[in-house]
Amino acid sequence: MTPNIAIVQIEAPRWRTPPLWLPLFLLWIPALLLAPVILLVMFGVCVAGRVNPGRAIATFWAILCGLPGTRVHVTTHESKVLVRIL
Amino acid sequence: MNENRRQILEMLAAGKITADEAERLLAALEPDAVNASEFTGRTANGATVKTRAKYLRVLVEADESMTGMKGQTTVNVRVPMQLLRAGVRLASLIPAQAHEHLDQALNRHGVPLTLSQIKPENLEELIDHLEDLTVDVEGKEGNGTKVRVFCE
Questions:
Q1: Mind listing the pLDDT tens digit for each residue in B75-129?
Q2: Is ipTM strictly over 0.85?
Q3: Which of A2, A32, B81, B117 is the most buried (most CB within 10 A)?
């Protein structure tokens, strides 16, 4: 399953954001509209690099589908950053 | 050698049981069989399934002396194993003409690795064995840095 939502929260010494729910699924709209261009560019790059385009697309898709569940949490003395991909 | 094992071997030596029977009895005493069952589960139809790690966790706790920042800094990263598997597949996308340059660069930095010899199945195997890996690093006196890498 591709990532649908990213949650980002940033805390700095003087300000903090609430958990921001970013709807990644909305990126499908521009991605689908630009799909012919993206595929063409990917195909061109693969041919130039002598890489199998099918394998490249499969790898890219596998990485995209592997993203949900990723969590990065960095805390310092005064600030905090949390990124979660669902 | 424990008492049960000794008795089985004595019975085999005395000809009271056959070699096959002794093998079955010894296998039943095998502690690994017990341990293995602890890490496996059973489905509704009785099939045995091994539970696999889903995430790779990296925990870093660094103190001021390491980061130069006030107070302690902690980094907690959770990477899905699926993403790790997909990531290693990127290695198979490195163009063949780049292999030579990369090999030379790695050799210059003391890493005698030939990328063309690494196959996707080797990388899959590497990820599989990563599930058994735990890394614990602690700084020496005066350095409170800790690094933990493990699968969960």
A1: 999 999 888 888 877 777 777 778 788 888 888 888 887 777 777 677 777 777 8
A2: no
A3: B81
**B52 close contact with A: CB closer than 8 A:** no
A67 three-state secondary structure: coil
> Are the C-beta atoms of residues A86 and A68 closer than 8 Å to each other?
yes
**B123 CB-near residues (< 8 Å, 6+ apart):** B88, B89, B91, B92
Q: Nearest CA to A80 among B15, B65, B74, B123?
A: B74
The per-residue pLDDT for B52 is 75
How many whole angstroms from its chain centre is CA B12? 39
CB B133 within 8 A of CB B150: yes
Chain B interface mutation, best of A75, A80, A81, A82, highest count of B Cβ atoms under 10 Å: A75
3 state SS of A52: coil
DSSP β-bridge partners for residue B57: B78, B150
Evaluate whether B56 touches B78 at the Cβ level (below 8 Å): yes
Q: What is the pLDDT of residues A40-86, one digit of tens each?
A: 998 998 888 888 888 888 888 999 999 999 999 999 888 999 999 99
Confidence at B46, pLDDT banded by 50, 70, 90: low
